[in-house]
């Protein structure tokens, strides 16, 4: 949080708001959002798909008409692909290789290919703009001296993924 706030503060330069034009200068902010989507993808099982023809994929026979469910949540935590997969470490995204459309298939919060999410660009800008301005304008703290390590991070699975318990945060205006 400290590093993120330092980045947006430096680029905000005391202006009332961070504008969209400044988002490309915020590499750590982008990495924070990517890492959040790795650990907590909004659509943990993407959207169910159905094979339209018989295919052989990595040795598996998938007949026409089979419903296919992709576990993006598990893919993002695969220890074969990610070092210390359970740790929130945005630094791992501080390179160009892991872009939303990199198609490495080890990180697919928006799916991939022909049926991948067409709303990527819109939603990424909205998330970046909202997060940048929240941490630019507010100091965020947990109530009653709660340590972030004690937060209950249990998730509730459905079509979308969200926290099991509400996150209580105290936001104090910075200026
Ligand atoms: C954080 C925000 C969003 C996330 C994480 C997200 C994620 C996804 C995922 C995982 C899929 C399934 C991809 C697949 O099966 O390979 C999908 C499909 C889709 N998304 Fe998004 N999405 C987001 C926002 C949006 C927005 C803002 C729009 C529209 C403006 C949108 C429109 C769609 C549509 C139309 C599909 C179906 C595409 C198809 O079946 O061809 N999404 N999205």
Automatic annotation (TrEMBL):
Keyword Heme part of the UniProt annotation: yes
Gene Ontology annotations of biological process type: sesquiterpene biosynthetic process
Transmembrane segments: none
Residues noted as binding heme in the record, renumbered to the chain: 117
InterPro entries: Cyt_P450, Cyt_P450_CS, Cyt_P450_E_grp-I, Cyt_P450_sf
GO MF terms held by the record: heme binding; iron ion binding; monooxygenase activity; oxidoreductase activity, acting on paired donors, with incorporation or reduction of molecular oxygen
Cofactor: heme
Keywords: Heme, Iron, Metal-binding, Monooxygenase, Oxidoreductase
Similarity remark: Belongs to the cytochrome P450 family.
Protein known as: Cytochrome P450
